[in-house]
Write a structure and sequence with these properties.
This protein has a five-stranded mixed beta sheet. It has a two-stranded antiparallel ribbon with strand order 1-2. The protein is extended and about 100 Å long. It is built from twelve helices and seven strands. Helix content is 52%, strand content 11%. Among the domains are: 48 residues; 51 residues; 90 residues, no CATH class; 83 residues, no CATH class. It has 421 residues and is an alpha/beta fold. Strand 6, helix 8 and strand 7 form a beta-alpha-beta unit. It comes from Nitrospirillum iridis. Pfam families: DDE_Tnp_IS66 (PF03050), LZ_Tnp_IS66 (PF13007), zf-IS66 (PF13005). This is Transposase.
């Protein structure tokens, strides 16, 4: 900022006031610059984390949840910087408000609408003082929340006695409860379960939430509710599992989960095994369903326990344990094309990859055939696959074998091809 000496005031007090204004402006600019520098530092750190996740050694790669937390931090810092800038520039605020409105989407129609009408203080015409009428309106919507409201259900069971017969007393039986003599309603227990398992809020934090409402419930009490509910839900799980095992085809997959290991100061690996059925794409008669098994490992023994009693076809990734178990139990295997395709797709995102791109194009031809026959009877789908898809798959296999001989064994494309073969 350049200052013309000729424009400076001669009066000392006026000059002092101008210096103070300039000092305040300079400090505000320094503060804004520090915010931008902090944001840039966070962005550089996030880029470094993303590079580690994509290209770093497997042992150093970050979990996606950690990156989401980092992204939230960046987005909050950016919003703070924008809010400060918009206070100083109203035009910038108007422009950005319009951009945000376009990007925020539409609120779901099933939500109840509470209308608030903001009318002028006076509807008299400023010209003739006559009564004005509505000719239109501007309408806007904002999302609101009504915080959870706890209430106490008081159950009263009056006892009735006869004035003439001293021994005759009638009273309705106590209603059945999930936890006899317990504090919670079934709805409260369900809320604790959903908050713990769907929202991933541990019980000690839920206990803290109750305490903020003046309700003192110990974590051990919440744990008892969860355990009791699990015991009551186990028969439902068994029925669902039995229904799935009667299916002709199931999806099977295992997902690693860190498990607390008391006494060792660190976590160990456990696995959730999922059995899933979804026959909707071909209009099957069975409803979609999924059940989960927990096991401390992912060996053939655990896979055999999960699939015990099943005699159909399993659709899986290329994990060798499934092949081992299927061979013992007489189960058929249908490997998942989505897993195969994903490896080639990941290769194309790291740079030019003509072989991986052609592989994706060949897979797309198979996907197009599946889109055509989706919903057709099973016999028709099988016929089309044998006549149209099988030749494409056979040729794809020969082509992959040829390309594998041209590549370095350590390349990511070669890894994707070996997985496919």
């Amino acid at each position: 900022m350049r200052i013309d000496p000729d424009t400076l005031p001669a009066d000392v007090e006026a000059l002092r006031a101008q210096v103070l204004v300039l000092a305040e402006t300079l400090e505000a600019e320094r503060t804004a610059r520090r915010r931008v520098e902090d944001l840039n530092d966070r962005l550089r750190h996030l880029i470094h984390q993303l590079q580690r996740m994509q290209f770093g050694p497997r042992s150093e790669r970050l979990d996606a949840d950690q990156l989401n937390l980092a992204l939230e931090d960046i987005e909050q810092a950016r919003a703070e910087t924008e809010a400060v800038a918009e206070k100083d520039e109203p035009a910038l605020k108007r422009r950005r408000t319009g951009e945000r409105r376009k990007a925020r989407g539409v609120l779901p129609p099933h939500l109840p609408r509470i209308e608030v009408v903001v009318a002028p203080e006076s509807t008299a015409c400023p010209c003739c003082q006559g009564t004005m009428h509505v000719i239109g309106e501007d309408r806007s919507e904002r999302l609101d929340v009504v915080p959870a409201r706890y209430q106490v259900i008081v159950t009263r069971r009056p006892r009735y006695g006869c004035r003439s017969c001293s021994g005759a007393v009638v009273q309705a039986p106590a209603p059945a409860r999930l936890i006899e003599g317990g504090l919670p309603t079934e709805r409260l227990v369900a809320n604790v379960l959903v908050t713990k398992y769907a929202d991933h809020v541990p019980l000690y934090r839920q206990a803290q939430g109750f305490a903020r409402q003046g309700i003192m419930i110990d974590r051990s009490t919440l744990a008892f509710w969860v355990g009791y509910a699990a015991a009551e839900l186990t028969p439902v799980w068994r029925l669902m599992r039995a229904d799935l095992l009667r299916s002709g085809k199931l999806f099977v997959d295992e997902t690693r989960a860190p498990v607390l290991d008391p006494g060792r100061g660190r976590t160990k690996s456990g696995y959730f095994w999922a059995l899933a059925r979804d026959d909707r794409p071909w209009r099957g008669g069975d409803p979609p369903a999924v059940v989960y098994h927990y096991a401390p490992g992912r060996s053939a023994k655990h896979a055999a326990d999960v699939l015990d009693g099943f005699t159909g076809i399993i659709q899986t990734d290329g994990y060798t344990v499934y092949k081992t178990v299927a061979g013992r139990a007489g189960i058929g295997i249908a490997h998942c094309w989505a897993h195969l395709r994903r490896d080639f797709f990941d290769v194309t995102k790291t740079g030019p990859a003509p072989i991986a791109e052609e592989a994706l194009q060949r897979i797309a031809q198979l996907y197009a055939i599946e889109a055509e026959i989706r919903g057709s009877p099973a016999a028709d789908r099988r016929s089309v696959r044998q006549t149209r898809s099988r030749p494409l798959v056979d040729e794809f296999k020969r082509w992959l074998e040829q390309q594998l001989g041209r590549l370095s064994a350590k390349s990511t494309t070669a890894e994707a091809i070996r997985y496919a073969l």
